[in-house]
Specification:
By secondary structure, this protein is an all-alpha fold. The protein is built from seven helices and no strands. Helices cover 81% and strands 0% of the residues. Helix 1 (2-25) packs parallel to helix 4 and helix 5 crosses helix 6.
Length: 150
């Protein structure tokens, strides 16, 4: 029975990824992010894979709008934030997920009136700035290490 349940879960995630891809395709600004190697399908499948809550997935799938997508992206962002802090080396699709999450947080700051959502958006943007600083520090130390070996 475990295999059947796992296949069912993967099917639901694939269905969600399809709906999310269609939702993202309507966003002209977001489509500009897909000029690199990571396409919109890869991104939506990564996002779907990061979501563990099946009930939340079903609820959002049937009611996709900016705020519901942001709430899912916030969960994905937290996982990727921790992964980046602990291990570093996110994949290109994971970096893109962080960019999209940040973009939706900025949108929520402009559009949402829900204090909880506004707080989450603010926290995401603040932590994203911390990630930027971390990346700059890592790049700087890598350059310094390269210069030291010459």
């Amino acid at each position: 029975m475990g295999v059947i349940a796992a296949v069912g879960t993967q099917w639901e995630k694939a269905e969600f990824a399809k709906h999310l891809r269609e939702f993202f395709a309507e966003d002209l600004e977001l489509r500009e992010l897909f000029s690199g190697a990571t396409n919109i399908e890869t991104l939506t499948h990564v996002i779907a894979a990061l979501i563990e809550d099946k009930e939340k997935l079903q609820l959002v799938k049937n009611n996709l709008h900016s705020e519901s997508v942001f709430l899912l992206l916030f969960d994905c962002y937290l996982l990727l934030f921790i992964k980046e802090l602990e291990h570093g080396g996110l994949s290109q699709a994971e970096h893109l997920t962080i960019q999209v999450s940040r973009r939706y947080a900025q949108t929520m700051q402009k559009e949402s009136s829900d204090p909880k959502v506004l707080n989450m958006a603010e926290r995401l943007i603040l932590s994203a700035k911390q990630l930027d600083s971390l990346h700059l520090g890592r790049r700087s130390s890598q350059r310094n290490m390269g210069a030291a070996t010459r």
